[in-house]
Amino acid sequence: MTWRKTGTEFDDDCANVDLSDAAYRTHQEAIGFIYRIESDVCRIAKSAVRRFATSKDATDAIKELIGHGFWKDRDSHYEVVHHADVITESLHAQQGKRDRDRAAKQRQRSKQGKDSEDEPVSGDVSADSRQTDRQTDKQLGSPMKPTCDHGVETRYWKCTDCESEAV
After folding, report:
1. Which domains does the chain have, with CATH numbers?
2. What is the pLDDT of residues 53-83, one digit of tens each?
3. Predicted structure pTM score
4. Which residue, 46, 40, 28, is CA-closest to 2?
5. Which of 7, 18, 58, 141 is the most exposed, fewest CB within 10 Å of its CB?
């Protein structure tokens, strides 16, 4: 996951050229889409526009953005030019952080004697679970391990030996 970043001048740049609401919205949605697909070249396939542009006037908005030089029309795609340096820098910084975190986690695993990223899993599924069979009993405060009349702990609410109800 990446975090969308725009500089403080972003809104002023848009206001200075008097972008329409549809153009501003489409531009913001395009930047969000670029962060989502992590395109550090700030390109959007023309066929992908419908995946993010929700304005009913998106087609006119794109023409407006191109006219103001915020976007460039390339043959098969659009290139977001306005704010591209901030977007690219932010994406690279976030990818670098993920790489550093991954390397740190690998070093931690190596110190613990685990060479792979996979944690060992028990062959018994119930060994990895902390839940009881009955969630409602847990919520009502019933004991986690019920015992029958003669004190034998049972997994079931009826003792299989003496057929008495567990308490």
Report:
1. 1-115 (1.10.10), 133-167 (no CATH)
2. 999 999 999 999 999 999 999 999 999 999 9
3. 0.64
4. 40
5. 141
